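From the pipeline queue, job 12 of 40. The input is one protein chain; the requested action is below.

Action: predict structure.
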Amino acid sequence: MANRLIIILFFWTNLVAAQDMSRAEYISKYKDLAVTEMHQYGIPASITLAQGVLESGNGNSELARKSKNHFGIKCHSSWKGKKVYHNDDEAQECFRKYPTVAASYRDHSVFLQKARYANLFELAINDYKGWAKGLKKAGYATNPKYAELLIKIIEDNRLQQYDKPTDAPFMAKLWYHGMTYGYPYVLGQKGFYKNEQKGFMLTASAEASLEDVNALIGASKLLHHQIGMGVLAGISLDKEEVINYQAKYGLAVQFLLPHNDKMWLIQPSIITADFKAFVPVISFGLLR
């Protein structure tokens, strides 16, 4: 009896798994994920959902089922993750493979930070028609009716209802500033400018310890949309009877963590004045 139940359960599980997801089910399942990405990156949720629906066949394509790739994003030379090969415009083209659907949605958001899509972020968050036409113009897809297909999916399923203006921190935001804390510089002011499209960030800070004050500027390359690495340079003012100025140089790594309408910045670095003695420094703060 137990064996029969196991066999029935096995076939029932496979039958359910084999059933195609409807468009309504797809939208219901992933709308919150699309809204989250909108809040983080400033891409209309309607566009993200419509692209997911179209590119993945409502989540039923082989690429979506086996590789969790819901946006048809190909490998390109910069991709360091897992790969799969499918016939597309050409035979056995390389596509990205993800561990989860959420990872596919996040990579789609990051993918659209490329320079060729930069003009789209100047559009209103509810201008889904402008986004659809802009994606086609920028070369996201080769189908000449790509924009019309996206717009039809959005309007047929009322996806524009999810494109509500919000004060959440879009990654398109460039400037952040605020108080920082750390060691040995216990208190400071820091600001940074981050350009996702061009892949760099600039920093400026003034931080005080019990012995001196550092004023530094920096330039970093974005290794990831939340990680930067670069150099620092500036001056140090000693708190003596006679103020002494000293040039300082350093290497720094920045970790960026979005939080509501702000950004956590954690920056470990090493600072030197003579390239012989190096001082480890850590600072962190919630910038706005």
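Job complete. The mean pLDDT is 87.
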